[in-house]
Amino acid sequence: MKIIEDPKAIEAKSMQIIEEVANLDYAEREKKVVKRVIHATADFDFKDLIIIADEAIESGLKALKSGSNIVTDVNMLRAGINKRKLGALGGELECFISNEDVAKEAKELGITRSMMSMRKASKNPKNKIFSIGNAPTALFELMKLIEAGKVEPELIIGTPVGFVGAKESKAELEKLDIPFITVKGRKGGSSVAASITNALLYMT
Amino acid sequence: MKIIEDPKAIEAKSMQIIEEVANLDYAEREKKVVKRVIHATADFDFKDLIIIADEAIESGLKALKSGSNIVTDVNMLRAGINKRKLGALGGELECFISNEDVAKEAKELGITRSMMSMRKASKNPKNKIFSIGNAPTALFELMKLIEAGKVEPELIIGTPVGFVGAKESKAELEKLDIPFITVKGRKGGSSVAASITNALLYMT
């Protein structure tokens, strides 16, 4: 068997296969997002699950190009986002879940670290893109902060995964008047959020 | 709506739902692995895709308890593994993909960084567990190193994802006389490899 070893050739071939197998009924830029998620998961279900709000890609690209930071809920997602590409645009990757001050304040207030890290993130006006792949509590807290007028993201990539609160948090996100990209139902996770975020970075 | 906020309560409730929904025909320890993957992906397909070699869990637990390191192919997977738990057992998480020397030597030899990072990992006898969630080339290279007698892992968690080489690399892994955990077909990825690895760590 001939093994293709060049990472770029592997990716190009993969995207071609996805294009051929899936009948992707999306506009060009939206299709890039969906293809990258399928590329990262090999799960074609996502072609019917991903929801991209009308303004989402436009707003996300504008924010990226003006040097906005991206905030993630967990370190695994942060590690999966192309930091070099973001850095070249002037933005930084922020994730506060492991910060000692976040742990301390969360304990004092009796809330989760996920929630506390969103409160901390809301204080820096450069934090305009939120990528939340895991914790429904982080997404719920972000939406509360938005309602309270404490933060106004230019894009929320919200794909918490799982069986408790994930689906509900994403259904709430869909009602919001903030540009969002999400996934219906229980599926999602770090790999999904990372691939959506990277798809946008590669479009800048 | 009442939001459950306690992460431990969310996890317990999730595992209960998975148990109820899926009819998991696995032995007790194997079931813990499968449940954690479904927990991380909300994808019940995995119950029919995960393959756990007879000795795999026993061998992996023995290696972990004796302070072995875990090597990952990519940083995202490293970030998803419970480092504190591994550290308490005396092991370290190793990932060489971003090392400058690896990039330099890979270029000189005309191979991928994934392949070079496996060669580097093979040189430390503490590296007994390999968790490869993304790069088929890393898994192929590891198997070559095993054949050449240069490394003898006590467990390989091999779940490369995708459309080019992933399925083939995992089919090769199944033929190996080394304890392994893998996933049939195209599915896999960092979240899958991380949840399998963590399931083992939580069993120690």
From TrEMBL, chains A, B:
Keywords per UniProt: Cobalamin biosynthesis, Isomerase
Per the record, the domain of life is Bacteria
List, for all copies, the residue spans of the domain called Cobalamin biosynthesis precorrin-8X methylmutase CobH/CbiC.
10-203
GO molecular function terms noted in the UniProt entry: precorrin-8X methylmutase activity
Query: What are its GO biological-process terms?
Result: cobalamin biosynthetic process
Q: From the UniProt record, give the pathway where this protein acts.
A: Cofactor biosynthesis; adenosylcobalamin biosynthesis
* Record-linked SUPFAM superfamilies: Precorrin-8X methylmutase CbiC/CobH
Question: Which Pfam families does the UniProt record give?
Answer: CbiC
User: Which InterPro entries does this entry report, sorted A to Z?
Assistant: Cbl_synth_CobH/CbiC, CobH/CbiC_sf
What family does the entry list?
Answer: Belongs to the CobH/CbiC family.
Q: What is this protein called?
A: Precorrin-8X methylmutase
Q: Which organism is it from?
A: Selenihalanaerobacter shriftii
